Amino acid sequence: MSFKCPLCMRIFSQRFAYTQHAQKCLKNVEVEVEEDDDNNDSEKYSSEMDTRSNLSSEYENDKVEVNDDNDVQNMSFDSIGSAISEMSLEDSNFENILDSSEEPEIFEEPKNLNTKTCTEFPNDAYKDLMLLVTKYKINNKGGNEIIRFFNKHSNHTESPLPKNIEQGRAFMNNMKFSNLEFSKVLITKHEDKDYFLYYQNLIQCIKNILTVPDITQNFALSYENYEYNRESIYSEQNTGKWWKTTQESLLTGSKLLSIILYSDATTTDTLGKSQLHSIYITLGNIPIWRCNKQDAKQLLGYLPILEAANKDLVRDTFHKSLRHLLEPIILLKDGIDLFINNENTWFYPRVSTIIADWPEAASFCLVYKSSNSNLPCHSCLVKRENLANIDLSVNDVILRTHDEMRKHFENDTQRSVCIESVHNFFWDLPNINIYLATVPDRMHHLDLGLFHYQIIFTCDILKSQHVNVMIFVIDNLYDENNNEVDNFVNNDDLTKLYEYWNEMYILSRYEEFSESDLEKFNDAIHRWARMFVKAFKFVSPSNLKLPKLHSWVYHIIDSIRSYGAINGYTTETYESLHKYFVKIPYRISNKKDVEPQLLRTIKRQAISIRMSQHSVNPAKTPRTCKFSARLFEFSLQDANTFFNEKKDSVDNKMRTGFARFISCLDSYLDLLDGFTIIVWFSDIAISMDSEESNDYISDKGLYYGQALLLAEVLTDPPLNLALIQCYRVYTWCRSHSTLI
Q1: For residues 194 and 186, what is the distance between their CA atoms, to the nearest angstrom?
Q2: I need a surface site. Which of 257, 358, 380, 520 has the fewest CB within 10 A?
Q3: Tens-place pLDDT, residues 28-72
Q4: What is the DSSP letter of 635?
Q5: What angle do CA 656, 659, 664 make, to 5 degrees?
Q6: pTM of the predicted protein model
Q7: Torsions phi, psi of 5, nearest 5?
Q8: Where are stretches of biased composition, namely Basic and acidic residues (predicted)?
């Protein structure tokens, strides 16, 4: 990779050498261009160089002067409203990040720039240019070429554009919006270095989420005792036991506002030498399908990363930061009024779940991170030697509680329960057990954890049988223990292991669980786990003393009963947030004192989204279609006879439809006799009536089910019906002859 100076055309192999040269070259060019006022190109470069030479450090103006009262000073990073979370939704071009060979963006503002704050651009041309540059990640050099091209070919006597892109970016950085501010607060000092928390006010962050279009549709306001066939159903978070018990503890007439947190440190460069620790927030009141969209989440802040030999100081810094972020929950003793669906609603905010990988969960719980500790599970007090035991009794799995852990901390016996010597902030928060709220995450537990081990151990077994390539089909790869391997694993057991894995994994992705589903899921987990232990116990260096194995086997079912379906608390939909709130903004920074620069970049991108919101693609108009391919015609009074004759000549879907036909139709029609039924079978999409929509889980208003039969009842006019199976519920729905 090389770096070419655009002024003298010298080429450098290292960025550092190029940067050092550029500083000197800029001064030389500035002197030269002042001597030739007649050259248009020189005028342009003179303006640009004058601007650069007058640049002053923006961060010097933003440094925190620590206040003796609260150590907080606002940074003037103002609201970008709901747009801050929409920056990555429908704009795939956001991924068009700069090549690393392009010059870093200068985050400084000219001294002679009019710094009067505003919420609008000077004119439409100015606005369109800056939105274009921001949207497509055009660097300063490319943006300045656009300005030069516009000024050359336009008929304006005075250019409506900024003198250069740096000035335009500075103007956007100074734009003001009323409903958001990023602030920073000094958390600690260590070895003459200040460690700041960059954050957004929790309540304002929640309000910004609520301003996202359609986010409050089907917004949960109370516990729902969802049952089917006299069985409890766990789906959305408000169908879980935590919501029920928490709601009962609140004052009469108030509502529960469920806060979900996601926290993780991520590398910012390809070498992994630099990190940022971001934390995000969303609301458990939002339906799972909507909550898993990126615009339903907000950046809450960047946590300080303290590098110190004193690990207790590191842990204390982490929890001090969390206290500063979440303290409004404690201070709002009378709750808060929020505007939901055109009316004010009284809420009490509570933290429900924390989504994190295993080390991060240990940091929240302040338990020992090492899997070699005596009690390595952050949820219970299981002993290390029992991590691979699939047949533990209830007495062997004693859950951690705030009261018990606090007693050990206060009595200085924390080592006996493997917790750190730091006060846990979450002991002070109401309606949360931090040891259970750090729920098992499917992506880190299964995809990146247990399945990773399963592949590695399988490869070890295959190598012992001289099968040197891991292929997708593992059946019949070897027959007997021809190599006389100790603790031989036969090929059939290995095949069953992957079969059991697939069954378990498919069940984990259910959008709702009945009690019978949970029993089925629990059986599938234990069936797979037993085969996993049988196959790999002697292959694993630790004899499968894996905390994730224990956590998945013994804690995931209780998590579903407490917090709803697993799809509502998995990091799969959160990991991409790092790209938009950390990695991309970092790459276009100057890599020094990056947090303020990242926030300004995020702000400019959000301004671009906000001011482009009016350019929305019109909704597609449903087009009509006609039924075709008639399969059967029969009289309703002969339906059962007809179904018996045809059941052996149709597929399983139609056979299921025939079996449910009469019972479902009977609940839909008042009068049955005399109607003639014409039946089709086809793959269709169903437009559901609004009165029925609350009975089903939707994705952006689309309702997923399986069309078993399409039928036309020959009345006057004909009645078009579709027999739909939605989550084990069979129902006839009106068909309006439309294809969505």
Answers
A1: 7
A2: 520
A3: 544 433 334 433 433 333 333 333 333 333 333 333 333 333 333
A4: E
A5: 105
A6: 0.70
A7: -75, 125
A8: 41-51
